[in-house]
Amino acid sequence: MHFYLATSFLFPHSLRLRLLALCCGATHLPLLGYIGWGAATGRMAWAEFVILTLATLAGTAGALIGIGALLDPLHALAGGLNPNNVPNRGGKARRTPPDVGDIVCRLFPFIRQGKAAPRSPIDEHNIIAHEDPLTGIANRLGFLAQIDALPQNRRRGCIAILDIDHFKQVNDRLGQDEGDRMLGDFAACLASQTRRVDLVGRWGGEEFAIFYQDAIEDEASWSLARIADRMRREPIGRMDGEPISFSAGLCTWRSGPVTAAIARAEDALHRAKQSGRDQIRRAERPSSLAFGT
Q1: Between residues 203 and 95, which one has the greater pLDDT?
Q2: How far is CA 109 from the centre of its chain?
Q3: DSSP per-residue string spanning 86-122
């Protein structure tokens, strides 16, 4: 559509003439190149020039016929788009076929309106159900839905549950608006410091979840440590002059119910907070539980 509008200066009211000009210009480039080469070198062969000219004209005609055939379906829209009904001799109205360019011009506003049309109620409901409105990332339901949608060979990696340290004090002392801002900044930090294949969601309150796809615990732990270092250098906020930190629990997941891995990651998070916060703890490996590969 942008190209259509950009070339409107050629023949504003006739798409067919515009196509003729473009086809002639494009298909005659080899001929013009040959003429330029012949004029520069003085080695013009008139027999070859005539043959090349005829071949070029034939190619132009074929291109125009093919393009015209491709545009014919647009004429089927003429009945609904052409407002000019011309009466015939029998008194019945007959429609004059509009120029294809007119049809495109009339279609364009409808196409533009279609792109700008609001989402259906079903789409809106689905977005509301799976997206956290404060941070713009997935909520708990959306996070789990994204994991469930993964193919079987991608359902493995590491689950991390993160919790912003002393967040209740942030709300109590700095206000809820400041707390909401920190939640949004923390979500943005997580999204920017993880890979595109990883999944990030707000688990609830000040807790967030990350699924490191196809990652081992060492890789996921290193990523979390990098996020913690980033927050020390570029804090999302401060409390008593100290950067806001987070604690995290990490667990390996190899297929099976993801809820079991999440529960173990939450238990590791609980141990991290009991041990003084601002640290990453890995889930304990129960001797009675084996994960499939």
Answers
A1: 203
A2: 24
A3: EE-TTS-EEEPPPPHHHHHHHHHHHHHHHHHSPPPHH
Q: Which domains does the chain have, with CATH numbers?
A: 2-116 (no CATH), 124-282 (3.30.70.270)
Neighbouring residues of 183: CB distance < 8 A, sequence distance ≥ 6: 134, 135, 164, 202, 206
d(CA 281, CA 267): 9
Quick one: tokens of 96?
């004059």
Question: Which residue is associated with the tokens 């590491």?
Answer: 158
* Contact by Cβ (8 Å): 243, 276: no
Confidence of residue 87 (pLDDT cuts 50, 70, 90): very low
pLDDT band for position 84 (cuts 50, 70, 90): very low
- Closest by CA to 15, choosing from 73, 56, 64, is 64
240, HSE (Cβ side, Cα atoms, 13 Å):
4
Residue keyed to tokens 């991608």: 154
Residue with tokens 């291109």: 63
Q: For residues 244 and 234, what is the distance between their CA atoms, to the nearest angstrom?
A: 10
Closest C-alpha to 268, from 165, 160, 166 = 160
User: Per residue in 181-199, pLDDT tens?
Assistant: 999 999 999 999 999 999 9
Q: Which of 94-108, 199-213, 219-233 has the lowest mean pLDDT?
A: 94-108
Asked if residue 283 lies in contact with residue 267, where contact means CB atoms within 8 angstroms, the answer is yes
